Amino acid sequence: MKRERILKFTTPASIWQEAFPIGNGRLGAFVYGGTDVELLRINEDTLWSGYPGDEQTGMTKDAIDQARELAKQGRYREADALLKESNKGARDVQIYEPFGDLVLTFEKEREITAYERSLDLDTACVNVTYRDRDNAFEETCFASAPAQEICLRICAEKPFTVKISAENGFLTEQRYETDGFALFGRLPGKSLRTVGSGKGEVEFFVFSEIPEEMGMRYEGRGRVRTAGGTTEAQADGLVCKDVLELEIFLAVRSSYAGADRHPETEGADTAALLETDLHGSERSFEVLKQEHIAEYQELFNRVELELPESGREQLDLRERILQYEKDPDDTALESLMFDFGRYLLISCSRPGSQPANLQGLWNCEKLPPWHSDYTVNINTEMNYWMTGPCRLHELIEPLVRMNRELLDNGKQTAKTYFGCDGAACFHNVDLWRKTSPADGSPSWAFWPFGAAWMCRNLFDEYLFTKNNDYLREIFLILEENVRFCYNVLEKTPDGYAVCPATSPENMFLDHGEKTSIGLYTENTLAIIRNLFRDYLEACDALKRESDAAGADSVSASTATAYSNSAAVFPDAVLSQSVREILPKIVPTKIGSKGQILEWNEEFEESEPHHRHLSHLYEFHPGRGITNRTPELYSAVKESLTERGDETTGWSMAWKMLMWARLEEGTHIDGLMKLLFRLNEPRDPKMSERGGVYANLLCAHPPFQMDGNFGYTAGIAELLVQSHADEIVILPALPGHWTKGSVKGLGVRGNVCVDITWDEEKTECTLISSTDQKRTVRIKGGIQKEISLTAGKAVSFGCNRAGEQVE
C-alpha cells in the first residue's frame, strides 16, 4: 500500500519556519493555518528591486593584471589587498522582494479543542482542520499551475465571520468590493544595499518619480465567493459575515517583461494578464483542485521511494524531528524529506518561471539573507542536481533560460575585467542578470566562473536525456563560456591555469595572515576541465548528427535557440584549440597528507573545516575523478575526512553526495543524524548550527533552499549512479536502510531504474528509451553487461552472497 507523504503539525504556525510552502513555479505562499488569524505570505518570482543595466562596477582590469603579477611573485597578501581595495564601491545584486501578506481575521477568538495542519505531498495541498466549542472548520489551500492562482477554501459546520485584508511588502493601494479585491504595489527603483551594509531597511531603497528610475509595478486581484451570509466592502478590507463557506482565488502579476526591458517604460500590462488568470476561478473550487492535483502528480509521481514506516508518522513534525535526534530510526522521515525536496522544486521552478533562488520562491523579508539572490558559486547549481536522477527535465528550463539571458552582460563582463571574448559571470546574479563583481572580499567577489559552473548542470541534463534538440538549445551557452575560459588560461611552470584565482569563499594563511588570492586554484581549473570535456562531447554529438542528417535538417527550434548567432554548428577553430589545450591544463594535485590540493601550493588552511568543498569539484559535480582514478579517489576521501561532517545544512547535503560517490553508505548515517537536528530560529544558541527547521526546510542557518534540493539529489545518488560509464545499483545504501524500494529513478543515457532490496537480495529493472548496451553493477554483488531494447524491461538481481537470482 502506498504510504502517506504528509507533513503534520498539531498547532498553527507561529513563525515562518513552521508554515507550509505552496507554489506553482511562479506564484507561491507560506500558509500558517491560523485559527484566529490566518496568514498567507505571498510571493511572485519576478518581484525584484531594480531594472535592467549592469553597471560593471568594482574592480578593474588594471587591478586584476597587477594582482596577477603579484601572485606570480608569491606576494599573495598584496594581491588580495589590491583587489579588495579596487572592488570598493562595487554594486551588489538587487533584492528579491515579497508581495505582501493576505490576512484573514476571524471575528472572535476561539478556544480550540482539536487541531491538525498538514501539507500533503501527494496532492500539493495544505489542509487544516480544527474545532472550537461551537463549530468545526476545514481549510484547503493550493497554488495551481493550470489556473495560475492561489486557491483557498474555508468551510464550517456553522456560520462564521471573517475579514480579508492585506499588509506588508511594498503595497501602496488596496481596493475592496463585495465580490473581491485588488492590491497594488511598487518596488524600489534600486537597492543600494550590499552584503556589508548592515540590516537597516529604508535607507538602502531608492524610489524615484522619473519613469526610467522607477521600480517594478505589481498587482494582485482576488475573487471571493461565499455560501450563506453577506459581504461588506470596507476601506481596509472585505468582511464576510455569517458565511458557511469562503473561497478566495488570488492571481498576481508584475510589470516584468524581460531581463532587458524596463519594468516601467517597457513593462507588461498587469491588468490584462490578471484578467486572463482569473478566468480560471469561474469554475468550481473542486474542479480547480482536481485539475491542479492531476497536473502536479504527472511530475511528482515519476519517482516513488518506499522505506519502512516508523510508527512516528502521526506525531507532530517538530516532535518527530526531536525523536529522530534521540533515536534516528525513522527511515520514513528520511524518505519524506526526499519527497519534500521534489515537491519544493516542482513548486518553484517551471517552464516560463524564474529559476529557484536561494529561498526557492519564498521570502517574507524586505531584506532577506543574501538578498535571496542566485549565488552561483554552488547554491544555484545545487538547486538543480536532482532534475536528471528524479526525471524532472522540464524543471531545468528556467536555469537554461537564465544562462542564455546572462550572455549579453557576460560578454561585457569578459571585455571589461579581462579584455577578452566569451562570457563571464561573477558569483551573484539577480533578475536583471548581473554578471559583474559584487561588493565584498575577493574570497567571494573575485571569481568569474558562475555561468561556467552552471554549464555543468546544463550539459549533465543532456547526458540524462540524450536529447539533441535540448543540446542545441544549450550549445551557444557552452560555447561562449568555453571561449572565455580558453582566453583567460595562461602558461605557468606547472601547465596552463587561470592566474590569479580564488577558491570560493575560502582563505589560506600567508605568513600567518588570511588571504584568498593564489596563483591558481583547483576549483577554477576543475570547472574549466569539465566544461571543456562537456563542450567537446557536445561538438562531437552535433557533428555526428549533422553528418548523419545533413545541414538542411536544422529545425525551427534550433533556429530560435540560436537567434543571437548565425553559428548553429560548433566553432571549428575554438573546438580544435580546446582539444589541444585540455591535456596541458594543470592537473589535480595531491598534498603531503594525501589530500586534494586546493591552491597552487600547500598553504596552511585558515579554516580547515570550511563549508565549501570547491577543490573537490572534479569529483562532484564533475566527473574527472572516479574509482578508475584510484589515487585521486583516495585523496578525495582524505579531503572529506579532514573537512569533517559538522557544517552548514547545504554543505552537509553536498557531503552526502560526495560520500555516496565514494560508495561509503555507512558514513551517510552520521551525516543524516547531523542534518536532521532541529534548529529553533528563536534560540540564539542555534544561530550557527546546520540542520532543519520544524517545517523540514534546511537551516544553513538562516534558511536556504539548496540544502533541501541537495539532500534529495544525495538520496538519489546513494540509490543509483551513472557518472562513470557504468550503472551502479545501491552504491551507498545507509547502514540502517535494510529494506526498501524505489521506482522511476533516471540514469544517464535515458534509462529508468526500479530497485527493491532487503537483507536477502537486491533486484533491479531497467527500461531504456533507446537500444544500447550498458554495464550494470549491484554494489556488493554482480556486474554484468546487458543489452537494452527501447521500451523493453530487463530485470535481474543478486543475493547477499553476490550470486545472481532471476
From TrEMBL:
InterPro entries for this protein: 6-hairpin_glycosidase_sf, 6hp_glycosidase-like_sf, AFCA-like_C, Alpha-L-fucosidase, GH95_cat, GH95_N_dom
Could you tell me the keywords of this UniProt record? Hydrolase
**Domain Glycosyl hydrolase family 95 catalytic residue range list:** 285-719
**The Alpha fucosidase A-like C-terminal domain, residue ranges:** 721-783
Q: Which domain of life is it from?
A: Bacteria
The record's GO molecular-function terms, alphabetically, read:
alpha-L-fucosidase activity
- Does the record's keyword annotation contain Transmembrane helix? no
Give GO BP annotations, semicolon-separated: carbohydrate metabolic process
A UniProt-annotated Pfam family: Glyco_hydro_95_C
Glycosyl hydrolase family 95 N-terminal domain ranges (all copies): 7-257
Q: What is this protein called in UniProt? A: Glycoside hydrolase family 95 protein
Please name the source species: Gallintestinimicrobium propionicum
